[in-house]
Amino acid sequence: MPQTPDALVVRGWCGLALDALGRAREEIDAINVYPVADSDTGTNLYLTVESAARAVEAIFAAHEAADSPDGPSLAEAGRAMAHGALIGARGNSGTILAQLLRGMSQVLAGEGDLSHEASEPTGQEASEQRARRLKKALGHAAASGYQAVAHPVEGTVLSVATAAAEAADAAPDDCSAVVRAAYDGACAALERTPQQLAVLGRAGVVDAGGRGLVAVLGALVEAVSGQVVAAYATVGAALRAGSSEDRTRGEAQGDSCGHEAASGPAFEVIYLLEADDERVERLKTRLDGLGDSLVVVGGDGLWNVHVHVDDAGAAVEAGVEAGRPYRIRITHFGAEDAHSAGFVPPVREKAQRAIVAVVPGEGLAGLYAEAGATTVLARPGEPPASGELVEAIRRAHAREVVLLPNDADLRHTAAAAAEQARTEGVRVALIPTRSAVQGIAGLAVHEPERRFDEDVVAMTAAAGATRYGELAVAERQSWTMAGICQAGDMLGLIDGDVAVIGADLTVTARSVLDRMLSAGGEMVTLVVGDEVPEDVAATLEEHVREAYLAVDTVVYRGGRKAALLLIGVE
Q: What is the DSSP string of 133-184?
């Protein structure tokens, strides 16, 4: 059902955009050839939107904590989105996207929140007014993007943003029509990028940043209209991007995009900067003389600075002269030991291999730590961001890291964290564990003395051979695979789907165990939360011992903030 722009639409848009970029991240990374072929545009866009989404969630949480009956306004949500994108912007395309979101939010916040104005028009007039606001927001976003880039280049995300705004402006004054026109205009512009930028045509790809913006605009269509757009076919676009003759000629000349990128500046420098407008203008002039790909976004005293240079120290010094730079990141293009300058180099020798795991509960965190893993605690309703996982990988301080997300919903977040850690010289293998009990199974066969690939294969096989179950309490009436549940019902899930609905924890858990063991098994793992009475685990253990003679059982305490009961069957 179509919706008018409000705070909930902004919240939904951020979440949908994050999902879309998560699905397209590897695909976008693979076509990243401009301005530097460092295969990280998709990851950078994902991290940028992730920061924006978390900021919007934080503003909603603040209103809920204050028992605010109305929740945040459109202006508040828009400002939160823009601020989150600004402080979390990564890479050239991520920094430009942050400016595009800021440009949109300036229109939303500057004109107030129409959904909360007492004098707001009603009916058709109100709908048309909101549509015109969307058009203005998209147009201001595109203009802001050009202003943030020192030397704008056609055939990039800027061209795609401009085409989206122009198409939206020509659409009828209807919100759904406006966002759909913007998306269609962006797709058409993206198809043209190989003809506008020679390096894309030679590589046979469309612009990676523009492809990311198409994903973000597709999410906006779904948030506003409720319609899911068809996935953009990057592979097909790549084939149409340039003729085989053009690509062959470019390769024969040794003029591939990777070669061109390698001849550019050696370092990417990014930092947040607290400074006034006048000093930032002088900073732009100085940085423009030091390198290229200069993008400076922000305002109101806070800026995100991005530049490619040969003298990274001079770029940072320029920031110091302009104001207070922090969160400084310096990446050496193509270097295996690329690192973040914002972190003090450790003096101890790196370990060869480490395990990093997300765990739901303090008891499990202790269990994983005893096995030598570096842990990230997943708080109820607050899944860790990719930045937290990257920090954990850094804390592990190892050349090789095995990452266990232990949650199906964290697959994109963990993949983005792994990609970021790889740019810092860490070899990372992501094992797609969907439950902490699968992680335990993987840890049980971990042998750091083995070759890395062999160890990862063994851990992956052990985790994949473990079925997982969980007991949870239904929060509301809803349809499930096992029928209709009511609020307060006990739900028994197997491999993520509701398989049993019951009234009693022990009875429901026994039924789940029986179903899981019906396909066979040698070992049952029970992870019991603090809310579960002591005798429940003993009862279940006795049931397994009596009904399944050849099956062993091991029980762990999940601790505070853990699930009621996790079950693993190997």
A: HHHHHHHHHHHHHHHHBSS--TTSHHHHHHHHHHHHHTS-S-HHHHHHHHHH
